[in-house]
Amino acid sequence: MTNQKNERALLVGIDFGTARTAVMNSRRQKGLLQTVVGYPRDIIGVKLLNRTLVVGDEAIEKRSYLDLFHPLEDGVLKEASEKDLEAAREILQQAVAQGEPRSGERICGIIGVPARATAANRRQLLQLTDGILDLCLAVSEPFMVAYGLSRLVNTLIVDVGAGTIDLCAMKGSVPTADSQLSILKGGHYIDRLLEATIRDAYAGVQIDHYLARQLKEQYAFVGAASEAVVVTLRVNGKPMALDITEAIRVACETIVPDIVEGIKTLLVSFAPECQAEALANIVLAGGGSRIRGLGAMLEHHLRDYGDVHVTMVADPEYGGAYGALKLAMELPPEYWHQIGDVIGD
């Protein structure tokens, strides 16, 4: 039940992702932006932008005259430079601003972190919210997904993100470290492999990781191709039709063995009498859940363990943010410390 104190606060659920950041708030507003900040390289860039920085999609579009900072790597904050931390704060500020905070209003937020993020990772993120959120709770991203779906018992969540693939065994309580694991092969890993494979196949092709990501997001599949993937790319400046079917398939299938092994590892953490039900309740979440054929391939590789059923969340982009907001609205902030790491009052 929603707490009366909560009704006087702006509640925010944030899925702070390596590639994209999704946010939902108690005013029924939501937003999605790429987790990147661009800074003009020189005075010409400042003149073109009429600003000193730009966030999200616009930063990618105008990257020819910007220095881009992606503040997250493998799902956690980079420690490369102060500029990365500044970029992370800018993204969080924009996410919270979606709710149009009112003067004097208490802002309470729940932010997702990778399943096996270290205490130092969580603490660093929480400290970054100082001055942006009055109260902040950091929780596991796959747990947020499970909470949003009300799939809290005998369920396996597989959250395929850009930086990590997070797996979580839900057993009717807040998951412990033994019930979760992170694989450092997410969407960005696929992007880099796809870019390299296309470069190797076609000498002189002009492609970067942003273009590789666009191709993956549009055409990603595993297993047998339903049709050839032929795209127009520039080769030494000339547009050419190139067949990238095999490159897409090979790149996407590299994550399958790791996911299968992760599911097997977490499966045995369930009581023996619960394992059949858990296998019938495997949920794919995150942007990578859109890879065509992924669920069927996982079912095939796990067939020796019994009847396996893999489903996909209806809204991969907002599944984590929705779960975080739902938790924020249903659990009074004074109890947040029982769920995870908290900063603020």
Protein model, in words:
The structure is a single chain. The chain is α+β, with helices and mostly antiparallel strands and 345 residues long. It folds into four domains: 4-37 and 74-146 and 318-344, ATPase, nucleotide binding domain (Nucleotidyltransferase, domain 5); 38-69, no CATH class; 148-184 and 255-312, 2-Layer Sandwich (Nucleotidyltransferase, domain 5); 187-253, 2-Layer Sandwich (Nucleotidyltransferase, domain 5), CATH 3.30.420.40. It contains 13 helices and 18 strands. It has helices spanning 4-7, 43-49, 57-61, 82-97, 119-128, 141-149, 187-201, 209-219, 245-253, 256-267, 275-279, 294-301, 319-330, and strands at residues 9-16, 20-25, 30-34, 37-40, 54-55, 66-69, 72-73, 76-77, 106-113, 135-140, 153-160, 165-171, 180-183, 230-235, 238-243, 282-285, 310-312, 341-344. Mean pLDDT is 93; it is low at 1-5.
Architecture blueprint of SSEs:
Blueprint (H helix, E strand, L loop, with lengths): L3 H4 L1 E8 L3 E6 L4 E5 L2 E4 L2 H7 L4 E2 L1 H5 L4 E4 L2 E2 L2 E2 L4 H16 L8 E8 L5 H10 L6 E6 H9 L3 E8 L4 E7 L8 E4 L3 H15 L7 H11 L10 E6 L2 E6 L1 H9 L2 H12 L7 H5 L2 E4 L8 H8 L8 E3 L6 H12 L10 E4 L1
Parallel strand pairs: 1-9, 9-10, 11-16, 16-17
Antiparallel strand pairs: 1-2, 2-3, 4-5, 4-6, 7-8, 10-18, 11-12, 12-13, 14-15
